[in-house]
């Protein structure tokens, strides 16, 4: 008899539950962005002025989803999108001051979420868990259609 594995199902449940919890916490902390926008800003706070292609890789967002979100965030004046001098094919994304005001609060909220995720985990368990998640992600990326 084949053993039923539920890792993908659990990851999906964790993703949905975590997303709802994070969205509630963003509202409570009066951070006026949604979790997807937070993912984009988080990537840009780590490295500002990156290409849309690189941003898509860093956030694991599809091109159409990312394009829609970037347009909205540009309209809300959270970021700007520019062509580098002499290169009309590439677009670089930069964080504007209005979204930098969220950075510290967002980092504190991310830390709060990590404390929830890893409650009662040892440091060694966290390291092993994250290494295994990276392996799963690698396996999925390797088999993209």
Describe the structure.
By secondary structure, this protein is mainly alpha-helical. The longest helix is centred in the N-terminal third of the chain and has 22 residues, at 7-28. The chain is built from 7 helices and 3 strands; from the N terminus they run H-H-E-H-H-E-E-H-H-H. It has 2 domains: 37-98, Orthogonal Bundle (Arc Repressor Mutant, subunit A); 102-145, no CATH class. The chain starts with 6 loop residues before the first helix and ends with a helix. A 3-stranded antiparallel β-sheet has the order 1-3-2. The model has no long low-confidence stretch (mean pLDDT 90).
In the CATH hierarchy, what is the superfamily of the largest domain?
A: Winged helix-like DNA-binding domain superfamily/Winged helix DNA-binding domain
Distance between the termini: 30 Å
Q: Which term fits the overall shape? A: globular
- The helix/strand order is HHEHHEEHHH
State the secondary-structure class: mainly alpha
Proportion in helices:
55-70%
Strand order of the largest sheet: 1-3-2
Count of the separate structural domains: 2
Mean pLDDT: 90
Largest sheet: 3 strands, antiparallel
The CATH topology label of the largest domain is Arc Repressor Mutant, subunit A
The helix tally amounts to 7
The overall strand count is 3
CATH C-level category of the largest domain: Mainly Alpha
- Could you say what the CATH architecture of the largest domain is? Orthogonal Bundle
Poorly predicted tracts of residues: none
Strand content: 5-15%
Oligomer: single chain
């Amino acid at each position: 008899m084949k053993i039923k594995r539920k890792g993908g199902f659990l990851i999906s449940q964790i993703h949905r539950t975590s997303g709802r919890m994070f969205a509630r916490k963003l509202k409570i902390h009066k951070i006026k962005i949604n979790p997807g926008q937070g993912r984009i800003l988080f990537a840009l706070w780590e490295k500002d002025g990156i290409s849309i292609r690189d941003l898509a890789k860093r956030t694991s967002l599809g091109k159409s989803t990312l394009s829609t979100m970037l347009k909205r965030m540009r309209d809300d004046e959270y970021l700007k999108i520019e062509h580098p001098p002499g290169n009309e094919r590439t677009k670089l994304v930069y964080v504007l001051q209005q979204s930098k005001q969220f950075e510290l609060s967002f980092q504190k909220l991310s830390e709060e979420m990590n404390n929830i995720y890893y409650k009662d985990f040892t440091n060694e368990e966290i390291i092993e868990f994250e290494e295994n998640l990276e392996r799963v992600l690698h396996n999925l990326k390797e088999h993209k259609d």
